[in-house]
Amino acid sequence: MNLHLTHEQLCDLVLADSSLPLHDNLSEYGERDADVVHEHLRACLICSAELESLRAALAHFREASVSYAGQAFARASANRASIAPPHRFLTHPLYWAAAAAVIVATLAPVTLHHYHPAAPQTAVSTAQSTAARHSTESDEALLEDINQKLSDDVPYPMQSLADPTAGVTAAQSTSDQRNN
Amino acid sequence: MPSYAIPSETLHPAQPEQATPFDDLESVVALYEQRIFRFLLISVRDRDVAQTLTQETFLRAWSARATFRGDCAVPTWLMRIALNLVRDHTRTERFRFWRRVSKTAVDVSDIASHVPHRDSSLESRLIASEQLELVWESVAQLSARQRSVFLLRFLEELELNEIAAITGLPVSTVKTHLYRALATIRARHNSTTHEESQ
Q1: Is B132–A70 a contact, with Cβ atoms under 8 angstroms apart?
Q2: B46: helix, coil or strand?
């Protein structure tokens, strides 16, 4: 004769919903067996103590696990929220406007940075082309001047010797103007 | 006479794709993410792994949403996926290695600080911590199947028929796993009590 509850009987009590009356939990044993178990638990302190202890241990395990998991979940959610915007913001136009503003603000200095070297380069090239044009013009003028001088019959320093009247004619015309 | 294969669309005209609860994944995640994470965390005992597997659970659920026929509840289906992921993950030797070296591994000391203290006496707090430690270590000794069934019953507080639906086992087998899991816990409990009484 077994003096205590069997392992299966004890397990069935643990597995059953403790909020229900004992008879409901042991319904599969039948009314008479449920009464026997119930009577035994009332009479046997060992079985009732073990049942209570086992229930308490399982309850502590559950409550501590649920509490710890809840905290870990909250921490993980907070970490996730700090690195990514909430999903509902993604559908908000203001979110996209702000994102566009940030992108523009980020890219603007880069764009300006790219333009800055281009401007002096253009100025330099303009100056270079202007200088080149000026030098070409002056070269041409110089060559023109040389050509002019070479094509002259009488070199410029000897012009007074070649036409002695030139100075007189000029002087006369000047004196005529004065007389008039 | 040449035979022509009749396209299946002709015999069974294509049904318009039925809407599933997983089409609105955001709502499903909001409702069940914490629960799935909790089960995974206590199963694998690693926060990072639990997070990864939680994401993987919802990803798989969404990918396979067309196969959801509605013959079981949404959390049951999700828990089934999560359970398969745990099984795949813990089967590998790599998992055992990373659990030893992982900084995010969950230790019993992490959990012990969460034991509720309804009674403020030091003795009752010590007893509660000791009982928790006993169950925590006993669960680690269980086989993978026993552990899953045990957690579904005593952590998630699911009914036996729900556990049977998730695991694909008959209710009687689920019960047998629970008896064995509780036998392990009882044996450890009795040995601890016996040591203390000596």
Answers
A1: no
A2: strand
